């Protein structure tokens, strides 16, 4: 797997959605994210790592309910939430993406 450095696309699955989440500033959470991605704490990594929402649980977001009903196009990640999903196989979140994309007509 190559580390794509394009902005606004998911480091893990290359998804492009309106809801991307950057590596947290808090070092404690950063370590958790990096361990999720690399399996261990790497010596070198791209601090601009970006994940799409499919690697998080619905309960990791403040406003998942509003998002899924189309009231907002931006999901807000709770502080301390760490990515848990390795891939985008969650059918439910996939549907949510699709919905989010339709709202974003310029993409
Ligand atoms: Zn992703």
TrEMBL record:
SMART domains: DM3 (SM00692), THAP (SM00980). InterPro entries: THAP_Znf. The keyword Signal does not apply. Residues 3-86 form the THAP-type domain. This is THAP-type domain-containing protein. Keywords: DNA-binding, Metal-binding, Zinc, Zinc-finger. GO terms for molecular function: DNA binding; zinc ion binding.
